[in-house]
């Protein structure tokens, strides 16, 4: 029996994944994700689109003396991507010390209707290229250090009886922070709203999970937060302010100012309530300006955030539409040995996917995708797989330029000789993905205001060498046009489940 997956099924699956991720259930998340992707691929295999029967290029059928090629069979059209069965003859492999790669005169992202014609016109001229491979970090960087305060109970030694620090209302951490409410959980940490008894203010206590890897990662985050807070005013630069950090009962703890909901959760609640849409053009403008201010500051320190997404932008004030950038656990310096695996997939820049050299411009790409999502309520680039996502990117931003394809060390894993995107699926074999051009502007970006559209498209400049910086985007006309005030009372929302249930301790 074949089940047809609906949009509601997809939304439910995303909610389940978010739930598992938030509670650090990594094995369950991995298993669920694998099964969900298997379902998607099985549906693609059986879902032959009636509106798109087997197609053969007119040029191929009319050419004299040349046998027509086997027509491509369309399997599905979804997320602005056409998927068809593919043929191995269209793939290529690099060779030599320098790669020999197709010339890609039209870039990558050929529409389905044009693919066969491109194949017939293109003789696949191979040209030598030199893909980017990671460079080692400088060996002469200066040394630095900071002190870590260890808080312990006098007269007690040894390991704690519980591996994880128990979270319960009124418990006291380090003799200073009184727990008030459990806030959130992730694979890396848990967060709790606390009262700082010394300063008489509410704060956010981030408790790092008891793991050597997470401990090391938290040291990096503290190091970056210390640099960020010492280099400028956190409020003026729209970044979270670290107030304290210490080691307590086998856990690293980081204390920051207490902020409110993240943009993902607030936007979701706002749309579910079906009240007045919060993210109007004035508020999108205000949000973009503050995020760019934060990015300009970070980039001036040679830092890349590397994981900018709605979940990592927190609201400071609903009525003033004030936001701050948080979570520097994945951030890195330009002088680091830059990781090949950065950014959450929906907000991942094409240069990262292809394996090109990247810099702070990847944060700008993420911002463009975030603004479109806030305006529409939908992810701009779906991520069933990386090749499918590349086709989705091409449907919005046109063909990926040949210089990026030649620079990317992963290009041949995703791109055919003729500029389609491909992957091998367990149940279907080889499938090709093609962009669907000419999607209505409002469907993509939520508004058709020309300044707003130009701004978002500037953020989504495909060629990372030509993508504007945060400093340049702050001078964009969209940033200075008068759309009216972003100040107002937010639309009323129902209480969150956690608050309605009176939850004050971590869920089991």
UniProtKB/TrEMBL annotation:
PROSITE patterns: PROTEIN_KINASE_DOM, PROTEIN_KINASE_ST. The keyword Zinc does not apply. InterPro entries: Kinase-like_dom_sf (IPR011009), Prot_kinase_dom (IPR000719), Ser/Thr_kinase_AS (IPR008271), Ser_Thr_dual-spec_kinase (IPR050494). Keywords: ATP-binding, Kinase, Nucleotide-binding, Phosphoprotein, Serine/threonine-protein kinase, Transferase. GO terms for molecular function: ATP binding; protein serine/threonine kinase activity. The keyword Chaperone does not apply. Transmembrane segments: none annotated. Residues 177-479 form the Protein kinase domain. Pfam families: Pkinase (PF00069). Residues 485-508 are annotated as: Disordered. This is Protein kinase domain-containing protein.
């Amino acid at each position: 029996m074949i089940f047809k997956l609906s949009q509601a099924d997809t939304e439910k699956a995303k909610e389940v994944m978010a739930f598992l991720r938030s509670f650090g259930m990594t094995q369950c998340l991995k298993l669920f994700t694998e099964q969900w992707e298997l379902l998607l691929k099985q549906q693609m295999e059986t879902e032959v689109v009636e509106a798109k029967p087997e197609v053969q290029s007119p040029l191929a059928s009319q050419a004299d003396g040349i046998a027509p090629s086997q027509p491509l069979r369309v399997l599905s059209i979804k997320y602005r991507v056409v998927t068809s069965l593919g043929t191995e003859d269209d793939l290529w492999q690099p060779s030599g010390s320098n790669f020999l790669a197709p010339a890609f005169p039209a870039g990558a992202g050929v529409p389905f209707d044009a693919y066969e014609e491109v194949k017939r016109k293109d003789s696949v001229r191979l040209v030598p290229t030199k893909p980017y491979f990671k460079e080692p970090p400088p060996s002469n960087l200066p040394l630095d250090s900071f002190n870590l305060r260890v808080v312990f109970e006098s007269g007690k030694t040894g390991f704690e009886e519980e591996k994880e620090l128990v979270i319960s209302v009124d418990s006291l951490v380090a003799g200073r922070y009184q727990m008030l409410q459990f806030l959130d959980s992730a694979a890396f940490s848990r967060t709790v709203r606390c009262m700082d008894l010394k300063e008489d203010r509410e704060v956010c206590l981030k408790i790092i999970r008891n793991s050597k890897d997470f401990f090391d990662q938290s040291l990096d985050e503290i190091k970056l937060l210390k640099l960020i807070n010492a280099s400028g005013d956190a409020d003026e630069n729209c970044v979270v302010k670290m107030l304290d950090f210490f080691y307590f009962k086998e856990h690293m703890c980081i204390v920051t100012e207490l902020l409110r909901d993240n943009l993902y959760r607030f936007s979701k609640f706002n749309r579910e309530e079906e009240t007045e849409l919060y993210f109007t053009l004035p508020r999108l403008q205000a949000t973009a300006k503050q995020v760019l201010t934060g990015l300009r500051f970070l980039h001036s320190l040679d830092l890349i955030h590397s994981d900018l997404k709605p979940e990592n932008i927190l609201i400071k004030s609903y009525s003033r539409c004030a936001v701050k950038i948080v979570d520097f656990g994945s951030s890195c310096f330009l002088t680091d040995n830059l990781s090949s695996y950065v950014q959450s997939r929906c907000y991942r820049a094409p240069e990262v996917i292809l394996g090109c050299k990247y810099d702070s411009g990847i944060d700008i790409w993420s911002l463009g995708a975030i603004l479109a999502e806030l305006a529409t309520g939908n992810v701009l680039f779906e991520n069933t797989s990386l090749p499918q996502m590349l086709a989705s990117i091409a449907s919005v931003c046109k063909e990926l330029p040949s210089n990026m394809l030649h620079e990317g060390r992963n290009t041949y894993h995703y791109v055919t000789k003729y500029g389609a995107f491909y992957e091998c699926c367990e149940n279907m074999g080889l499938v090709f993905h093609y962009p669907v051009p000419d999607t209505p502007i409002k469907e993509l970006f939520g508004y058709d205001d020309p300044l707003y559209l130009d701004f978002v498209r500037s953020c989504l400049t495909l060629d990372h060498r030509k993508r504007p910086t945060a400093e340049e985007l702050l001078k964009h006309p969209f940033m200075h046009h008068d759309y009216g005030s972003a100040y107002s009372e937010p639309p009323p929302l129902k209480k969150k489940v956690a608050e309605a249930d009176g939850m004050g301790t971590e869920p089991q």
